[in-house]
Amino acid sequence: MAKKQSDEKPIVRCAIYTRKSTEEGLEKEFNTLDAQRESGEAYIASQKNEGWICLPDRYDDGGFTGGNIDRPALQRLLEDVKAGKVGCIVTYKIDRLSRSLMDFAKIVEILETHNATFVSVTQRFSTNDSMGRLTLNILLSFAQFEREIISERTRDKIAASRRKGKWTGGTPFIGYDVDSRSGRLVINPVEKETQNVTNNKENSL
């Protein structure tokens, strides 16, 4: 009896996440979100011996881009992960979850913090095994590279703008405005005159 209990697999509560960038075709009785969920359900069923069960809650984002994580169903899903209600996120493809490496890294960080995993059905990608974690590390390396490149480009752009005498942001000095066409500071006659009068009063005291 003790051996039987030790052989039992822990229950893995799986949530299927589906997404489509546009709302086109979502009015159909069986649409792409349904197809994605059906594939996810079949995959989870194939892992039944591993203790996987499919949660009935649907996390569908129809008409939302994968370029950011500002999606209602995804946010609800991540909250359920944090609450311990979900142990594994199952998607049809990786890009259904995110098209941004940086956002994907943030999502995986949340999963790791709460002992949850991620599986892509068609790409056989899972953070639950060594090969999946290796792939994840490669993706995170590219995410870090992407962040560093963006930071370098931003610094270079600001430096180049300053060399050309352009205002690089923030509130301009009193007596000056930012020219919308050239991006340079130009004198604001009214403010400049007011500033001169104020300075003269201070100097006379």
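Above is the first protein from milestone M3; the second protein from the same milestone is given next.
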Amino acid sequence: MVWPESAFPFMLSRTPDALARIGSSLAPGAALVTGSVRGERRPDESGEADFWNSIHVVGDDGSIRGTYDKIHLVPFGEYLPFQSALEAIGLEALTRQRGGFATGDRRAVIALPDGKRFRPLICYEAIFPEEVEGDQRPDFLLNVTNDAWFGRTPGPYQHAAQARVRTIEQGLPMVRSANGGISSIVDSHGRIVAAAKLGERRVVDALLPLPIESTVFVATHGLLHLAFPVVFLCLVFARRSRV
């Protein structure tokens, strides 16, 4: 079961009662993958804490079995460039998290209780091909996001479409959970298996599609992105030279 980014108005890792209730509601062997803010005190005498935009995997015993902290933060949304200067004049990130979020230190592949492994992608990490790369090939991609603040604009549609491109590049299916939509299950060819429309309240339930063999894009480490513009320019110059 997958819930979106910003699923809780509190830090799940610091709320054992909520974890216990989630665990008791899960079927044996099931897990909840959900977005949540995570916080930890710094190991110094400052008394300050760092906060991360994270994904947790909660098991049927109510324990957190895996965590991923977002790496690719959104400027002005999740952190302020030139933070000290801008906060001094009263500006803050759109998340209203003073000081912004801290940056995760590693990409991850997380295993579920049934052994399937996924690559976690929080919000707009799903639009960057390099965020999907890694030494370990997962069974599927998982994208949790909060697109609700864009309302009924082109933003959620663009984000969902760009996330689908990752499935085609990688040959991997994707499970996507978004606050307010668009939530979907996409196969490894970029085809939508099941989805909830923007603004629609429903459960998206379908079998997880299988991955395919590694693609040319993966084998070339994304160099095709550079090759296509070069080939296009060569064709343009070749045509002009004939005129």
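Note on the second protein: The mean pLDDT is 86.
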